[in-house]
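<instruction>
Derive structure tokens from the sequence
<data>
Labelled lines for chain and fold:
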Amino acid sequence: MQRGEVIVRFERVSFDFGVKKPILSEVDFSVRRGTKVTLMGQNGAGKSTILGLITGAFQPTDGLMHLSHGLTIATSRQVIPAAEMKLTVREFFQSVFAKKVYDIDPKIAKVLEAVNLHAPLEKEIGAFSGGQQARLLLAQALIQDPDLLLLDEPTNNLDKAGIEHLTKFLLNYKKTVIVISHEAAFLNSFTYGVLYLDVHTRKVEQYVGNYFDVVKDITARIEKENRKNALLAKEIQENKDKSNFFANKGGQMRMVAKRMREKAAELEEEIVDVRKEDKTIRSFRIPAEATPPGDLITISSFLTIKNHKPVERKAKLALRKNQHLLLKGPNGIGKSTLLQAIASGKAKGTKVTDGVTVGYYRQDFSNLDFDKTVYEELSSVLERPIEEDVRKVAAGFLVSGEIFHSRIGTLSEGQKGLVAFARLVLMKPGLLILDEPTNHINFRHLPVIAGALDAYEGAMILVSHVPDFVEKIRIDETLDLEK
């Protein structure tokens, strides 16, 4: 990484959420002033926990953390908590300061300009779209003018223009940044190095170079480890076979058999644990229920937002079985609001055929019950749940072990997303509604998810700002809310 004083250093830092939930084990890494670093790892590995340790939200279970004297830190969070949704824009920005800032309005105007957002100061935060809220979260961090900026999934919900604006901002930003994101092209545009959190060893590996180079290095290392393990497994089996053969001969041959067993044991110790966080979810399909022939949903009109006011637009659109619709439009035009209204059956001008089950992937996961365990939430969509069947589906999404009986609210955002997909598989909807399904999801899983959506045989409505993802999915109709 570029030269500069070390402003963050972890020395053998360990952290756990209790006896059964170890997160970090003797982690070592450092971050220098003025660098821009990506924090990588599987969903649920503990990336957000590392940010929490840096900010002081958590304290290490063991080890030492060194922060440069007087270092100021601000975090751009993943989501805005429900408790803050009633705040006005002015109150939202004021809330990050310990004391009242009397000249805060011009400061707000400056950071809103930096994130390219028009936001009336008296407007409630909950009235903004997901993409606009993502920009507000970034602006809230920027208004603190920190030495170290921590960005947790900053591209979630941002449209193409928003991501381009954020990329340009980070390229010109002179201070230190640590970013958690799954957007490969976005990360590669500004990353100097990568902190790679291994969910199996719970340690951090530090790499230098741009994002694509680091991912290539990691992939090559995994392939090398797999090849080595395959050769070792072959040699171990050969030694065991010879040992069994010589053991039956008796006499001095038993000593040869013993040496063969010892050699096999030595080789077994050389087998490398290949990174578990590099596992990808299994290929899956979302079954579609049997539906009556004809239109499953018709749209004759819909509402969009223009200049912060609703505008009704006419449409003539219908979806039958095996037809996929892409909803397009910039942040703030009303895409999520329309999807939510359709899913709840309250969308004026839209009719879902009676008896059709609607499966809704909501970007904030608020249609999941955060107080239920994963098993309870997944079982709730089945008439007669069988734990073994539910567990099998969940395991395909890397939701197994203790996670299966953990409360939804304790999971990472990425794990909540995988639970939401498992729920859709069990639900077998006739109409599938997806609002930004790539948010929070590890990039390795996205081709698998795209394949499942492409093959879905029911009616589907999709909102996504990730072109590479959309290109892998069959789209039969496109509705641009702006046009």
Summary: The chain has a mean pLDDT of 88.
